């Protein structure tokens, strides 16, 4: 349920318009969503082995620290926390606030304030205890699955639509394969950016592995089962979108779910789906707030972050300082980013770098520590992880060509992290020198 809550949020409603703008047919759109799932699954195979080997808090920070070097662990942890988790929290909070703005009569300043309050509320809930956040996560996840299944079943039965408008999208007389010639391969890679953002969270369970019962068994299971549920839902939902909306309507839609419900069921259906989107976004925001602090908590334990971030609240037994730091950073990004689309490529480029580093750590650990117990071994090794790395390189190149400013921002964040790592290391050496023998 943590994986489902982390994945199924705003992406499936707000990114289909961007995908439809880039791809010329329904077949290519569904193929892109399937490729996004396959890439996530390839990453899940690697994370399942790593998570079962190191069932500790911190996720990829731990894998890179153990497999390559503490500096590599710090950089991927730094990137995951700031570019992926804090950036996603900011984007989701802005989406939630923008959706509420017409009802509440908020201007731009009011939207930013509501987004900040939403982040603060979810942070306080998770500060009160992991079980509180997990309970809300399970409730919202169950509601999401049921509501989305009702939507995909009722749409074709009760509503009126057609796939015919998509048959002629693109150049007249061209097949989907032919449409990929002359630059559409690049557009296909760029379309994977919002799609991978929509799959973000498939590895959520590895960051809280130390708080999962029997993690060597349950971390791999949760990765695969959660991702399977999300993939099935995404393909079904996109099928309903393509049935309900013409290409022009899909491209023009801000919220594809609301637009499809309006087309299938009328204005009441649109309002109902719009309300569900708010619940879905809030659930994913809460799941992301739950997971993110475990990264800086693990880094702080090693002396690679603000030292107070390793403190556990005496009463609630949660990483209170780390939760507070994440809330402040996320609110700062809300003020800086302001809109949802700006966060997409910034965050996805970070995902590509971080998950590629995870896979590289898998290869290094197989070479350096072949005798280490592996309760789960990655399926298809070494070919599937190698293909995953090559695909990530191609996607990262496509994103960099299409959004150079956002990618340069991510790389600048990495450079700043390297400088901070050196500073933390020197501070640690000074403390060690000052300690009595």
Can you tell me about this structure?
It is a single chain. The chain is mainly alpha-helical. It has a single domain (2-426), classed as Amino acid/polyamine transporter I, CATH 1.20.1740.10. Helices cover 78% and strands 0% of the residues. The protein is built from 21 helices and no strands. It has helices at residues 2-7, 11-14, 16-22, 26-53, 60-67, 70-104, 108-127, 130-158, 164-167, 176-179, 184-199, 204-207, 215-244, 247-252, 256-265, 267-291, 293-301, 320-337, 340-368, 383-402, 404-434. Helix 7 (108-127) crosses helix 16. It is globular and about 75 Å long.
Helices, strands, pairings?
Elements: H1 2-7, H2 11-14, H3 16-22, H4 26-53, H5 60-67, H6 70-104, H7 108-127, H8 130-158, H9 164-167, H10 176-179, H11 184-199, H12 204-207, H13 215-244, H14 247-252, H15 256-265, H16 267-291, H17 293-301, H18 320-337, H19 340-368, H20 383-402, H21 404-434
CATH superfamily: Amino acid/polyamine transporter I
Strand content: under 5%
What is the helix content?
over 70%
User: What is the CATH-assigned architecture?
Assistant: Up-down Bundle
Distance between the termini: 49 Å
- Rg calc: 22 Å
Question: Whole-number average pLDDT?
Answer: 84
Order of helices and strands: HHHHHHHHHHHHHHHHHHHHH
Describe the biggest sheet? none
Low-confidence runs? 170-182
């Amino acid at each position: 349920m943590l994986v489902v809550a982390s994945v199924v949020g705003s992406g499936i409603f707000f990114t289909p318009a961007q995908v439809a703008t880039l791809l010329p047919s329904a077949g290519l759109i569904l193929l892109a969503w399937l490729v996004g799932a396959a890439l996530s699954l390839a990453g899940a195979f690697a994370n399942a082995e790593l998570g079962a080997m190191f069932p500790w808090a911190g996720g990829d920070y731990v894998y890179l620290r153990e497999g390559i070097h503490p500096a590599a662990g710090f950089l991927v942890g730094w990137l995951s926390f700031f570019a992926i988790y804090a950036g996603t929290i900011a984007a989701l909070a802005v989406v939630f606030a923008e959706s509420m703005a017409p009802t509440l009569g908020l201007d731009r300043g009011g939207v930013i304030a509501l987004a900040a309050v939403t982040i603060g509320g979810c942070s306080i809930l998770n500060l009160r205890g992991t079980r509180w956040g997990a309970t809300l996560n399970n409730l919202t996840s169950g509601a999401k699955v049921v509501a989305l299944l009702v939507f995909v079943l009722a749409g074709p039965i009760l509503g009126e639509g057609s796939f015919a408008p998509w048959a002629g999208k693109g150049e007249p007389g061209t097949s989907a394969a032919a449409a990929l010639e002359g630059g559409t391969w690049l557009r296909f890679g760029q379309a994977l950016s919002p799609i991978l953002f929509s799959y973000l969270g498939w590895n959520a369970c590895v960051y809280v592995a130390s708080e999962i019962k029997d993690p060597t068994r349950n971390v791999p299971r949760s990765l695969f089962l959660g991702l399977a549920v999300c993939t099935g839902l995404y393909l079904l939902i996109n099928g309903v979108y393509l049935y309900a909306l013409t290409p022009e309507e899909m491209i023009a839609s801000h919220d594809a779910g609301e637009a499809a419900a309006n087309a299938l069921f009328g204005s009441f259906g649109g309002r109902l789906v719009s309300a569900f989107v708010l619940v879905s976004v809030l659930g994913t925001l809460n799941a992301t707030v739950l997971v993110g602090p475990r990264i800086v908590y693990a880094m702080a334990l090693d002396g690679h972050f603000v030292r107070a971030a390793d403190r556990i609240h005496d009463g609630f037994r949660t990483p209170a300082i780390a939760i507070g730091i994440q809330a402040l950073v996320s609110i700062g990004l809300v003020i800086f980013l302001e809109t949802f689309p700006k966060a997409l490529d910034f965050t996805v480029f970070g995902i590509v770098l971080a998950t590629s580093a995870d896979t590289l750590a898998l290869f290094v650990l197989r070479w350096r520590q072949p005798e280490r117990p592996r309760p789960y071994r990655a399926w298809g090794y070494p070919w599937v992880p190698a293909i995953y790395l090559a695909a990530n390189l191609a996607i990262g190149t496509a994103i960099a060509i299409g959004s150079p400013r956002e990618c340069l921002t991510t790389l600048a964040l990495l450079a700043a992290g390297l400088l901070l790592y050196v500073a933390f290391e020197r501070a640690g050496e000074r403390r060690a020198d000052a300690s009595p023998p």
